[in-house]
Here is the input.
Amino acid sequence: MTDFTIHTPDTAPESAKPLLEVSRKSFGRIPGLHAVMAEAPGALEAYQKLHELVLASSFDNEEKTVVWQTINVENACHYCVPAHTGIAKAMKVSDEIIDALRDETPLPNHRLEALRTFTLAVMRERGYVTEDDLSAFFAAGYEQRHVLEVIMVLSQKVISNYVNHIAETPVDEPFRKYAWSKKA
Here is the structure.
């Protein structure tokens, strides 16, 4: 496999340097994913902007975690599952939810399970969800806005999951204790 460059502020393309500084300020360090994406500043900028929009979405921290991790686990992202485990813990999401997502076991409540089920339907059917999929999602208390926000989060995660698959981004040191691999 091709070795992808993990940039530093010194090695990054000039237009990526301010973006890496944004990452450093936001996370207290430059995540490996961001360091890889710095090679294509537009990709890093798109990812950062989507991340801001996801954080500002109507989903609460548990719901954000459900959508993020459902996508990460489905895509078997060796980097994002551990990273979002650490992020979920920092967001005070319960271990019960975190473990159920990582282990692909039922979530502790119907609403979150409906969110996971709908997210998987969107992914697996490439957006061609059925009327039954939508009805079940709406019956759990979600609205049209949430459908669109699931798609937005999926867009963010496609960028990160695919970059990590191709670049084989090493898991950042703070998240190595949450190492994960998809069960057969």
Q: What stands out?
A: The first helix runs from residue 17 to 27. The domain at 59-178 is CATH 1.20.1290.10 (AhpD-like). The mean pLDDT is 97. The CA atoms of residues 111 and 140 lie 5 Å apart.
